[in-house]
Design a protein that fits this description.
Elements: H1 2-22, H2 25-40, H3 49-78, H4 85-106, H5 114-129, H6 149-153, H7 156-171, H8 173-185, H9 190-218, H10 220-240, H11 245-253, H12 255-273, H13 279-332
Length: 348
């Protein structure tokens, strides 16, 4: 599983470069998803450790490489209405909810061998779905379409933005790795734990429904900074008031901000900052540095912290990291620092 996460650091950028260079995003997406099916089918051949390591490494490469291309393609189809992105993204959350509710009904301890069959079926459907969409070129960006990637990355706004994204992902390490264990340690039932996971995703879906209105009113920069600050508050609540059900519910509702608001505003900013032919590589940098590098570091560091200092201090450390991201972001991630001025930047 760690190998799949690690492949997210490099794989997205490699295929994004190909997509931006040849302007064939959809074909590269389709080829990548075809390889995910073919490679994952290898789990039926053998289940030895090193064979699975190889399968997961190759599978992770193509799987993680396709997502940023999808994000860029979605924005191309949205055209001059990028604030509608959240209405597309919310279906991923709906799919997650459906799966976590239905999976226990389909697979129990005796039938765990069905899991790879179900996964390859879903991977196949995912690949076939791309046959019903079309490729689309990005809208021209007057002031930034001719920029080179190094020039964009050197901008203080872009550097701080990417660092803040990485810090945000690092702060989530303890939550994604240990939340279920943390709940069990504090005598919550597994059913309650499942409901708390579900509550967070439901809140995220509701946020996505109204995200376009929030973008119109506040802009992506302000929403990005708010998301970072609410994330810090969320980890403080989990650290200090885990035994209070009311506070726990509030913390889970804050998932709407710590993931939903953060991701939607971040994707919007990436679309504005990495314009034209840089779109796919911009999305790849965001995925690789935040969910890839940041996610891997967060998982690793939270494990050491949990062993050495315990759960309370680990979540307080997570809060400190998110608060640090908030401070640097508030200083630099502002609308007036954006290097473009066009229809894409309307809701920034």
């Amino acid at each position: 599983m760690a190998i799949v996460m690690a492949s997210k650091i490099i794989a997205p950028y490699f295929l994004a470069w190909l997509a931006d260079h040849f302007q064939q995003r959809l074909k590269i997406i389709q080829i990548s998803l075809l390889f995910t099916v073919v490679v994952f089918a290898g789990v039926f051949i053998d289940q030895s450790y090193w064979w699975l390591v190889t399968i997961m490494a190759v599978f992770g490469f193509f799987w993680n490489a396709s997502l940023p291309l999808f994000e860029a393609l979605a924005f191309n189809h949205l055209g001059d209405k990028p604030n509608r992105y959240s209405h597309v993204r919310m279906w991923g959350s709906v799919g997650f909810i459906v799966l976590v509710i239905s999976l226990p009904m389909l697979i129990n301890e005796e039938a765990i061998s069905r899991l790879p069959i179900l996964l390859i079926f879903l991977l196949l459907l995912n690949g076939l779905s791309t046959l019903f969409i079309s490729d689309k070129d990005p809208l021209p960006h007057a002031s930034s379409s001719l920029q080179k990637l190094p020039e964009v990355i050197k901008s203080p706004l872009v550097l701080v933005f990417l660092i803040a994204c990485s810090l945000q992902a690092i702060s989530h390490g303890a939550y994604y790795t240990f939340f279920s264990i943390y709940m069990e340690e504090h005598h919550y039932t597994r059913t309650m734990t499942g409901w708390m996971w579900g509550l967070g995703v439901i809140a995220e879906v509701v946020l996505f429904v109204f995200m376009h209105r929030l973008l119109n009113r506040f802009g992506a920069c302000k929403l990005f900074n708010i998301a970072l600050f609410v994330t810090a508050i969320r980890w403080v609540i989990l650290a200090l008031w885990i035994d209070n059900l009311a506070f726990l519910i509030v913390a889970q509702l804050f998932h709407a901000a710590s993931f939903g608001l953060f991701h939607a505003s971040a994707i919007h900013l990436i679309h504005a900052l990495f314009a034209g032919k840089l779109q796919a590589r911009g999305q790849a940098l965001y995925a690789g540095l935040s969910f890839g590098l940041g996610g891997a570091l967060g998982n690793l560091l939270s494990g050491y912290s949990w062993d050495l200092y315990g759960s309370t201090w680990t979540f307080l450390a997570s809060a400190f990291i998110a608060f640090l991201a908030t401070i640097i972001s508030v200083i630099y991630v502002r609308k007036q620092y954006l290097p473009i001025s066009n229809s894409v930047a309307t809701n920034i």
